[in-house]
Amino acid sequence: MLPETLEKIHSLITQGAIVIGTPPAEIATLSGGREAEQQFKIAVNTLWGKGTAPVRSIGKGRLYRDDLLAALQQEHITPDVQVSDTAVHWLHRQTADADIYFFSLNQGKAFRGPITFRSEGYAEIWDPLTGSTKALGSNKRSAGDSISVDLDAGSSQFVVFRKEPHKLAEPVKKLITETALNKGWEVSFPQGWGFSSPVRIDSLAPWFTFGTNPESQHFSGTATYKRQLTIHPQPRAAYILDLGEVEAIAKVNINGKEVDTKWTYPYRVDISSYLKEGNNELQISVTSTWFNRLVYDAGLPEDQRKTWTINGPDKGSALKKYGLLGPVMLRQY
After folding, report:
1. Same domain, yes or no, for 98 and 218?
2. pLDDT under 50 in the chain at which residues?
3. How far apart are CA 95 and CA 111, in angstroms?
4. pLDDT score at 249
5. Are 88 and 102 contained in the same domain?
6. Of the residues 33, 132, 225, 294, which has the fewest C-beta atoms closer than 10 A?
7. CATH number (domain holding residue 200)
8. Same domain, yes or no, for 129 and 200?
9. In what order do the strands lie in the sheet with 122-126?
10. Coil, helix or strand for 216?
């Protein structure tokens, strides 16, 4: 940090600012030589002193060391967001008519639970992938209210508090039924890549568990999952197909019609308008990267390989879990 920056921070605190931060260890410039280093040390000492007190009063303001929560409590400031899982990342920005929160979660595990907000207003959920918006009820939320947030691993969403209700926001529908679709699948692979016939499965698993020979165990490409779905669609009901975990891209077809392609979490598709009374044919085409096949080809003579790359994985590298991994659920709202 520059000594001029520290001096400006000192000026702001003297005028009443509340600042939280630890003393910098080194000057962030080579210019100025020893004179600048001395200026830096004086500025650090002026702000933080020689002790380790958690808070110092400077003029009209205060400087806290590094305990953000303790500083907020001592200043009687309610945290902007309170969430139990530290893996949930968030940002907050304001516009003239709304408070906008963006939440994201890395791959690994999902988060489902309450998040408490300091903002108030008419709450909505925005999907950053589709642009769809859903109102969380018609009542105005108060500061300190909690909202149940559902974040899949590797996904993100917006929570927005409007000062006035937005008429275009679709209300969130309540879950009515949930049906597991993890059994009864027929999986087809293209000819010439290790599989001689479709594979019938009653549990979802990575492709390398389906193979009966080294080539099929290293399959990469597109595999097609098919099964029958018997349903009696209800008027005005919404049917959402949740594929769970997919590695890596899934294209959904219902009764021969393409519904949607999903390439990231959440792998959910609204299939309401594609369903018919009685039997329906559900088809999901899953496409992987070439990694597993590259592992297999790395152990073959060059004239027998089907893939080539400049810098691929080594022979015997751990295989990636490709395929429709689920759990696959059909939810009626």
Report:
1. no
2. none
3. 27
4. 98
5. yes
6. 33
7. 2.60.120.260
8. no
9. 88-94, 98-105, 156-162, 122-126, 133-135, 170-171
10. helix
Considering the domain architecture, whether residues 166 and 239 belong to the same structural domain is answered as: no
Reported as a single tens digit per residue, the pLDDT across 63-79 is 999 888 889 899 999 99
pLDDT of res. 169: 62
Contacts of 269 (CB under 8 A, 6+ apart): 240, 241, 243, 252, 259, 260, 262
User: Using only C-alpha atoms, what is the Rg of the chain?
Assistant: 28
Quote the pLDDT of residue 218: 97
| pTM for the model | 0.69
Residues 6+ apart with CB under 8 A from 105: 87, 88, 89, 111, 151, 152, 153, 154, 155, 156
* Same-domain check for residues 24 and 119: no
Q: Residue 168's pLDDT is what?
A: 62
End residue of a domain, out of 124, 151, 171: 171
Q: Which of 112, 143, 171 is at the close of a domain?
A: 171
Quick one: pLDDT at residue 66? Answer: 83
CB 236 within 8 A of CB 321: no
DSSP state of 273: G
Domain count, the chain: 3
Give the end-to-end CA distance of the chain in Å, rounded to a whole number: 55
Q: Which domain holds residue 254?
A: 177-332
Residues 193 and 255 in one domain: yes
Q: Identify the H or E element spanning 281.
A: strand 278-287
Note whether 164 and 298 are same-domain residues.
Answer: no
